[in-house]
Write a structure and sequence with these properties.
It contains 11 helices and 8 strands. It has 374 residues and is of the alpha/beta class. It has a single domain, classed as Histone deacetylase domain (Arginase, Chain A, 3-Layer(aba) Sandwich). It has an 8-stranded parallel β-sheet with strand order 2-1-3-8-7-4-5-6, with helices on both faces. Helix 6 links the parallel strand 4 and strand 5. The mean pLDDT is 97.
Protein backbone atom coordinates (compact mmCIF):
# COMPACT_ATOMS: atom_id res chain seq x y z
CA UNK A 1 0.00 0.00 0.00
CA UNK A 2 1.28 3.48 -0.88
CA UNK A 3 0.26 6.32 1.41
CA UNK A 4 0.52 10.09 1.10
CA UNK A 5 1.01 12.23 4.19
CA UNK A 6 -0.36 15.73 3.63
CA UNK A 7 1.51 18.28 5.69
CA UNK A 8 3.34 21.58 5.80
CA UNK A 9 4.37 23.56 8.86
CA UNK A 10 1.98 26.36 7.91
CA UNK A 11 -0.84 24.07 9.07
CA UNK A 12 0.45 24.17 12.65
CA UNK A 13 1.35 27.84 13.11
CA UNK A 14 -1.97 29.41 14.06
CA UNK A 15 -3.44 29.61 17.57
CA UNK A 16 -7.13 29.60 18.42
CA UNK A 17 -6.41 31.21 21.79
CA UNK A 18 -3.87 30.82 24.56
CA UNK A 19 -6.23 28.76 26.72
CA UNK A 20 -7.88 26.74 23.94
CA UNK A 21 -7.37 22.94 24.21
CA UNK A 22 -6.95 22.53 20.43
CA UNK A 23 -3.24 23.16 19.83
CA UNK A 24 -2.20 23.00 16.16
CA UNK A 25 1.37 22.29 17.28
CA UNK A 26 0.24 18.68 17.72
CA UNK A 27 0.37 18.40 13.91
CA UNK A 28 4.04 19.38 13.90
CA UNK A 29 4.81 16.90 16.66
CA UNK A 30 3.26 14.11 14.56
CA UNK A 31 5.31 15.14 11.54
CA UNK A 32 8.50 15.37 13.61
CA UNK A 33 7.93 11.91 15.07
CA UNK A 34 7.42 10.37 11.64
CA UNK A 35 10.55 12.12 10.35
CA UNK A 36 12.49 10.80 13.33
CA UNK A 37 11.37 7.28 12.43
CA UNK A 38 12.32 7.85 8.78
CA UNK A 39 8.75 6.87 7.96
CA UNK A 40 8.21 9.64 5.41
CA UNK A 41 11.20 8.55 3.31
CA UNK A 42 10.34 4.84 3.38
CA UNK A 43 9.12 2.92 0.32
CA UNK A 44 5.40 3.47 -0.14
CA UNK A 45 5.43 6.78 1.73
CA UNK A 46 5.09 10.25 0.24
CA UNK A 47 5.09 13.68 1.85
CA UNK A 48 2.54 15.80 0.00
CA UNK A 49 2.11 19.56 0.26
CA UNK A 50 -1.37 20.88 1.06
CA UNK A 51 -3.23 23.53 -0.87
CA UNK A 52 -5.84 26.12 0.01
CA UNK A 53 -9.49 25.36 -0.59
CA UNK A 54 -11.31 27.84 -2.77
CA UNK A 55 -14.61 29.49 -2.01
CA UNK A 56 -16.54 27.41 -4.54
CA UNK A 57 -15.47 24.25 -2.72
CA UNK A 58 -16.61 25.65 0.63
CA UNK A 59 -19.99 26.53 -0.83
CA UNK A 60 -20.70 22.90 -1.64
CA UNK A 61 -21.70 22.61 2.03
CA UNK A 62 -21.53 26.00 3.75
CA UNK A 63 -23.86 28.95 3.20
CA UNK A 64 -22.57 32.05 1.39
CA UNK A 65 -23.38 34.25 4.40
CA UNK A 66 -21.34 32.05 6.73
CA UNK A 67 -18.32 31.84 4.42
CA UNK A 68 -18.42 35.62 4.01
CA UNK A 69 -18.67 36.12 7.78
CA UNK A 70 -15.66 33.89 8.48
CA UNK A 71 -13.65 35.77 5.85
CA UNK A 72 -14.56 39.18 7.29
CA UNK A 73 -14.14 38.20 10.94
CA UNK A 74 -10.77 36.60 10.23
CA UNK A 75 -9.58 39.84 8.63
CA UNK A 76 -10.60 41.88 11.68
CA UNK A 77 -13.97 43.26 10.55
CA UNK A 78 -15.71 44.06 13.83
CA UNK A 79 -19.02 44.91 12.17
CA UNK A 80 -20.00 41.24 11.79
CA UNK A 81 -22.33 39.83 14.46
CA UNK A 82 -20.18 36.89 15.49
CA UNK A 83 -22.81 35.28 17.72
CA UNK A 84 -25.05 34.68 14.72
CA UNK A 85 -22.44 32.25 13.41
CA UNK A 86 -21.47 30.75 16.81
CA UNK A 87 -18.11 32.49 16.63
CA UNK A 88 -16.40 34.53 19.33
CA UNK A 89 -17.21 31.88 21.95
CA UNK A 90 -14.73 30.00 24.17
CA UNK A 91 -15.11 26.90 21.96
CA UNK A 92 -15.01 28.79 18.68
CA UNK A 93 -12.92 31.92 19.19
CA UNK A 94 -12.49 34.43 16.39
CA UNK A 95 -8.79 34.95 15.77
CA UNK A 96 -6.66 36.79 13.20
CA UNK A 97 -6.13 34.67 10.11
CA UNK A 98 -8.99 32.30 10.98
CA UNK A 99 -10.31 32.19 7.42
CA UNK A 100 -6.89 31.48 5.93
CA UNK A 101 -6.15 28.73 8.48
CA UNK A 102 -9.50 27.08 7.74
CA UNK A 103 -8.86 27.28 3.98
CA UNK A 104 -5.56 25.46 4.40
CA UNK A 105 -6.90 22.68 6.64
CA UNK A 106 -9.85 22.13 4.30
CA UNK A 107 -7.63 22.31 1.24
CA UNK A 108 -5.25 19.75 2.74
CA UNK A 109 -8.08 17.22 2.84
CA UNK A 110 -9.06 18.09 -0.72
CA UNK A 111 -5.46 17.62 -1.79
CA UNK A 112 -5.54 14.16 -0.22
CA UNK A 113 -8.63 13.37 -2.31
CA UNK A 114 -6.85 14.54 -5.47
CA UNK A 115 -3.94 12.22 -4.75
CA UNK A 116 -6.31 9.28 -4.44
CA UNK A 117 -8.35 10.10 -7.53
CA UNK A 118 -5.17 10.51 -9.58
CA UNK A 119 -4.00 7.05 -8.43
CA UNK A 120 -0.87 8.59 -6.94
CA UNK A 121 -1.48 6.63 -3.73
CA UNK A 122 -3.83 4.04 -2.31
CA UNK A 123 -4.24 5.94 0.95
CA UNK A 124 -3.79 9.52 2.09
CA UNK A 125 -3.70 11.03 5.58
CA UNK A 126 -4.66 14.68 6.13
CA UNK A 127 -3.91 15.17 9.82
CA UNK A 128 -5.08 18.80 9.88
CA UNK A 129 -8.55 17.70 8.77
CA UNK A 130 -11.36 15.83 10.47
CA UNK A 131 -13.19 18.96 11.64
CA UNK A 132 -16.49 17.18 11.74
CA UNK A 133 -18.73 19.45 13.84
CA UNK A 134 -19.02 22.52 11.59
CA UNK A 135 -22.53 23.06 10.25
CA UNK A 136 -23.59 24.76 7.00
CA UNK A 137 -24.19 28.13 8.62
CA UNK A 138 -22.20 28.15 11.84
CA UNK A 139 -19.05 26.99 13.61
CA UNK A 140 -19.26 24.25 16.23
CA UNK A 141 -16.97 22.26 18.48
CA UNK A 142 -13.69 23.96 17.49
CA UNK A 143 -14.54 23.49 13.79
CA UNK A 144 -14.93 26.35 11.30
CA UNK A 145 -15.32 24.51 7.98
CA UNK A 146 -16.36 20.86 7.72
CA UNK A 147 -13.54 19.39 5.65
CA UNK A 148 -14.81 15.77 5.83
CA UNK A 149 -18.04 16.76 4.09
CA UNK A 150 -16.27 19.00 1.59
CA UNK A 151 -13.72 16.26 0.81
CA UNK A 152 -16.46 13.67 0.27
CA UNK A 153 -18.27 15.88 -2.26
CA UNK A 154 -15.85 15.33 -5.20
CA UNK A 155 -15.94 11.60 -4.55
CA UNK A 156 -19.71 11.61 -4.93
CA UNK A 157 -19.43 13.69 -8.09
CA UNK A 158 -17.35 10.83 -9.50
CA UNK A 159 -20.19 8.42 -8.70
CA UNK A 160 -18.20 6.65 -5.97
CA UNK A 161 -19.72 4.90 -2.97
CA UNK A 162 -18.32 6.37 0.21
CA UNK A 163 -18.26 4.99 3.74
CA UNK A 164 -17.35 7.46 6.47
CA UNK A 165 -16.25 6.06 9.83
CA UNK A 166 -15.67 8.44 12.72
CA UNK A 167 -13.79 7.15 15.76
CA UNK A 168 -13.40 10.52 17.47
CA UNK A 169 -14.63 10.59 21.06
CA UNK A 170 -17.31 13.10 19.98
CA UNK A 171 -20.20 12.30 17.67
CA UNK A 172 -19.59 13.26 14.03
CA UNK A 173 -22.73 15.37 13.93
CA UNK A 174 -21.86 17.71 11.06
CA UNK A 175 -21.06 14.86 8.69
CA UNK A 176 -24.18 12.95 9.72
CA UNK A 177 -26.22 16.10 9.09
CA UNK A 178 -24.80 16.48 5.58
CA UNK A 179 -25.66 12.95 4.46
CA UNK A 180 -28.63 12.07 6.66
CA UNK A 181 -31.07 11.67 3.77
CA UNK A 182 -28.91 9.86 1.20
CA UNK A 183 -27.81 6.28 0.66
CA UNK A 184 -24.70 7.38 -1.25
CA UNK A 185 -22.74 7.73 1.99
CA UNK A 186 -22.77 5.31 4.90
CA UNK A 187 -21.82 7.25 8.05
CA UNK A 188 -20.71 5.35 11.15
CA UNK A 189 -19.77 7.15 14.36
CA UNK A 190 -18.35 5.46 17.46
CA UNK A 191 -18.24 7.94 20.30
CA UNK A 192 -18.81 8.65 23.94
CA UNK A 193 -22.56 8.87 24.41
CA UNK A 194 -24.15 12.27 23.98
CA UNK A 195 -25.73 11.72 27.38
CA UNK A 196 -22.34 12.60 28.86
CA UNK A 197 -20.52 14.85 26.40
CA UNK A 198 -20.77 17.40 23.57
CA UNK A 199 -22.55 17.61 21.17
CA UNK A 200 -25.34 15.65 22.87
CA UNK A 201 -26.29 13.77 19.70
CA UNK A 202 -25.36 10.46 18.13
CA UNK A 203 -28.00 8.23 19.66
CA UNK A 204 -28.61 4.83 18.09
CA UNK A 205 -32.08 5.91 17.00
CA UNK A 206 -30.60 8.52 14.63
CA UNK A 207 -30.70 6.15 11.65
CA UNK A 208 -31.18 8.50 8.69
CA UNK A 209 -34.24 9.73 6.81
CA UNK A 210 -35.85 9.08 3.44
CA UNK A 211 -33.40 7.34 1.10
CA UNK A 212 -30.86 7.59 3.89
CA UNK A 213 -32.79 5.52 6.42
CA UNK A 214 -30.43 2.81 7.61
CA UNK A 215 -27.32 4.65 6.39
CA UNK A 216 -26.66 6.71 9.52
CA UNK A 217 -25.11 4.52 12.20
CA UNK A 218 -24.27 5.52 15.76
CA UNK A 219 -22.55 3.43 18.41
CA UNK A 220 -22.60 5.46 21.63
CA UNK A 221 -20.34 4.26 24.44
CA UNK A 222 -20.13 4.70 28.19
CA UNK A 223 -17.46 6.85 29.86
CA UNK A 224 -14.21 4.95 30.53
CA UNK A 225 -14.83 2.32 27.88
CA UNK A 226 -11.48 0.56 27.41
CA UNK A 227 -9.83 -1.18 24.47
CA UNK A 228 -11.46 -4.60 24.86
CA UNK A 229 -15.05 -3.36 24.91
CA UNK A 230 -14.43 -0.67 22.30
CA UNK A 231 -12.86 -3.10 19.83
CA UNK A 232 -15.60 -5.67 20.46
CA UNK A 233 -18.27 -3.08 19.61
CA UNK A 234 -16.28 -1.94 16.57
CA UNK A 235 -16.07 -5.49 15.22
CA UNK A 236 -19.70 -6.32 15.96
CA UNK A 237 -21.31 -3.13 14.64
CA UNK A 238 -19.03 -1.27 12.24
CA UNK A 239 -17.07 -3.94 10.38
CA UNK A 240 -20.04 -6.05 9.16
CA UNK A 241 -21.72 -2.92 7.81
CA UNK A 242 -18.57 -1.81 6.00
CA UNK A 243 -18.20 -5.22 4.42
CA UNK A 244 -21.85 -5.25 3.32
CA UNK A 245 -21.73 -1.68 1.96
CA UNK A 246 -18.52 -2.38 -0.03
CA UNK A 247 -17.42 1.24 -0.50
CA UNK A 248 -15.23 2.47 -3.33
CA UNK A 249 -13.61 4.91 -0.91
CA UNK A 250 -13.30 4.65 2.85
CA UNK A 251 -13.07 7.95 4.71
CA UNK A 252 -12.01 7.71 8.34
CA UNK A 253 -11.93 10.43 10.97
CA UNK A 254 -9.20 9.37 13.37
CA UNK A 255 -9.72 11.59 16.40
CA UNK A 256 -7.67 10.36 19.36
CA UNK A 257 -9.50 12.28 22.08
CA UNK A 258 -10.68 8.77 22.99
CA UNK A 259 -7.29 8.29 24.70
CA UNK A 260 -7.38 7.66 28.44
CA UNK A 261 -5.16 10.67 29.14
CA UNK A 262 -7.20 13.13 27.10
CA UNK A 263 -8.04 16.10 29.32
CA UNK A 264 -11.56 16.88 28.06
CA UNK A 265 -13.15 13.48 27.34
CA UNK A 266 -13.88 10.24 29.16
CA UNK A 267 -13.17 7.20 27.01
CA UNK A 268 -10.16 5.12 27.99
CA UNK A 269 -8.42 3.81 24.88
CA UNK A 270 -4.70 3.25 24.58
CA UNK A 271 -2.60 4.07 21.53
CA UNK A 272 -2.38 0.35 20.76
CA UNK A 273 -6.16 -0.05 21.01
CA UNK A 274 -6.64 2.89 18.66
CA UNK A 275 -4.07 1.39 16.28
CA UNK A 276 -5.87 -1.95 16.26
CA UNK A 277 -9.06 -0.21 15.13
CA UNK A 278 -7.13 1.68 12.45
CA UNK A 279 -5.54 -1.55 11.26
CA UNK A 280 -8.97 -3.04 10.65
CA UNK A 281 -9.62 -0.38 8.00
CA UNK A 282 -6.97 -1.80 5.69
CA UNK A 283 -8.43 -3.52 2.66
CA UNK A 284 -12.03 -2.38 3.19
CA UNK A 285 -11.98 -0.20 0.08
CA UNK A 286 -9.65 0.36 -2.90
CA UNK A 287 -8.97 3.90 -1.66
CA UNK A 288 -8.61 5.16 1.90
CA UNK A 289 -8.80 8.80 2.97
CA UNK A 290 -7.84 9.34 6.61
CA UNK A 291 -8.41 12.60 8.44
CA UNK A 292 -7.28 13.87 11.83
CA UNK A 293 -9.75 15.14 14.38
CA UNK A 294 -9.84 15.62 18.12
CA UNK A 295 -7.01 14.93 20.52
CA UNK A 296 -5.89 17.20 23.33
CA UNK A 297 -3.07 15.25 24.97
CA UNK A 298 -0.42 16.38 22.50
CA UNK A 299 1.89 13.41 22.78
CA UNK A 300 -0.95 10.89 22.61
CA UNK A 301 -1.91 12.58 19.33
CA UNK A 302 1.60 12.37 17.89
CA UNK A 303 2.06 8.73 18.89
CA UNK A 304 -1.38 7.58 17.73
CA UNK A 305 -1.27 9.36 14.38
CA UNK A 306 2.28 8.21 13.73
CA UNK A 307 1.12 4.65 14.40
CA UNK A 308 -1.84 5.20 12.06
CA UNK A 309 0.39 6.41 9.24
CA UNK A 310 2.68 3.44 9.80
CA UNK A 311 -0.33 1.17 9.27
CA UNK A 312 -1.43 3.08 6.18
CA UNK A 313 2.03 2.92 4.60
CA UNK A 314 2.57 -0.72 5.59
CA UNK A 315 5.45 0.06 7.94
CA UNK A 316 5.86 -1.37 11.43
CA UNK A 317 7.18 1.38 13.70
CA UNK A 318 9.44 0.35 16.56
CA UNK A 319 7.89 0.72 19.97
CA UNK A 320 10.90 2.58 21.36
CA UNK A 321 10.69 6.12 20.10
CA UNK A 322 13.68 7.50 18.17
CA UNK A 323 16.23 9.02 20.54
CA UNK A 324 15.97 12.57 19.25
CA UNK A 325 12.20 12.65 19.78
CA UNK A 326 12.32 10.73 23.05
CA UNK A 327 14.86 13.10 24.58
CA UNK A 328 13.10 16.23 23.40
CA UNK A 329 9.63 15.29 24.62
CA UNK A 330 10.31 12.88 27.47
CA UNK A 331 8.19 10.11 25.94
CA UNK A 332 9.76 6.64 25.73
CA UNK A 333 7.44 4.41 23.73
CA UNK A 334 4.97 4.60 20.86
CA UNK A 335 2.45 2.39 22.62
CA UNK A 336 1.18 2.96 26.13
CA UNK A 337 3.15 0.91 28.66
CA UNK A 338 0.07 -0.11 30.66
CA UNK A 339 -3.69 -0.15 30.66
CA UNK A 340 -5.68 2.66 32.28
CA UNK A 341 -6.90 1.97 35.80
CA UNK A 342 -10.68 1.70 35.65
CA UNK A 343 -12.79 0.30 38.53
CA UNK A 344 -14.34 -3.10 37.86
CA UNK A 345 -17.93 -1.90 38.17
CA UNK A 346 -17.30 0.84 35.61
CA UNK A 347 -15.83 -1.74 33.23
CA UNK A 348 -18.95 -3.89 33.65
CA UNK A 349 -21.26 -0.90 33.15
CA UNK A 350 -19.34 0.08 30.02
CA UNK A 351 -19.66 -3.43 28.61
CA UNK A 352 -23.41 -3.55 29.28
CA UNK A 353 -23.85 -0.14 27.67
CA UNK A 354 -21.86 -1.21 24.58
CA UNK A 355 -23.79 -4.46 24.27
CA UNK A 356 -27.04 -2.50 24.30
CA UNK A 357 -25.78 -0.07 21.64
CA UNK A 358 -24.58 -2.88 19.40
CA UNK A 359 -27.81 -4.84 19.78
CA UNK A 360 -29.83 -1.79 18.78
CA UNK A 361 -27.59 -1.05 15.78
CA UNK A 362 -28.01 -4.65 14.65
CA UNK A 363 -31.78 -4.43 15.13
CA UNK A 364 -32.30 -1.04 13.49
CA UNK A 365 -29.60 -0.95 10.80
CA UNK A 366 -28.48 -4.46 9.83
CA UNK A 367 -31.67 -5.46 7.95
CA UNK A 368 -31.27 -2.50 5.56
CA UNK A 369 -27.94 -4.00 4.49
CA UNK A 370 -29.04 -7.63 4.28
CA UNK A 371 -27.37 -8.57 7.54
CA UNK A 372 -28.90 -10.81 10.18
CA UNK A 373 -29.05 -9.70 13.77
CA UNK A 374 -29.47 -11.34 17.11
Amino acid sequence: MSAAFVYDDLLSRHSLSGAHPLKPVRLRYTYELLRAYGALEAPGAALTAPRRADEEELLRFHTPSYVDAVKRIGSGDESVAQQGFNLGTPDNPAYPGMYDAALWSTGASLRAVEVLLADEADAAFSISGGLHHAMPGYASGFCVFNDPVIAIMPLLLRGLRVAYVDIDCHHGDGVQHAFYDTDEVLTISMHESGRFIFPGTGHVEEVGAGKGKGYSVNVPLYPYTTDDTYLWAFREAALPLLEAFAPDVLVTQLGIDSHFRDPITHLALTVQGFAEAVGAFRGIAPKWLALGGGGYDLQAVARAWAAAYGIMSDRQLEDTLPAEYRERHGIATLRDPGDPSVPGQVLRDARTFAENSVANVQRLIFPTHGLRHG
